[in-house]
TrEMBL record:
Transmembrane segments: none annotated. Pfam families: SlyX. InterPro entries: SlyX (IPR007236). This is SlyX protein. It comes from the Bacteria. Residues 62-71 have a biased composition (Basic and acidic residues). Residues 49-71 are annotated as: Disordered. Coiled coil: none annotated. It comes from Pulveribacter suum.
Length: 71
């Protein structure tokens, strides 16, 4: 009877671990899905910004051209 109880306890412990692992996997999948959505949205925003500023690679800027108006 002791061997049967030990086996049942071990089986129950494995089932609990499997349930926790499944929950963790679901949480990780959801986090990955949300990150992918964020990456796609940021790519769209970057594309829109690139369309708005077509000469984004104009080269180095002169800081004197960016002086505030009170100078």
């Amino acid at each position: 009877m002791s061997a049967m109880a030990s086996t049942d306890e071990r089986l129950q412990a494995l089932e609990i671990k499997a349930a926790y692992a499944e929950d963790l996997l679901d949480e990780l999948n959801l986090a990955l899905y949300r990150q992918q959505q964020l990456v796609e949205r940021l790519q769209q925003e970057l594309g829109e910004l690139r369309r708005r500023v077509p000469d984004g690679d104009a080269g180095p800027r002169n800081l004197r051209d960016e002086l505030p108006p009170h100078y």
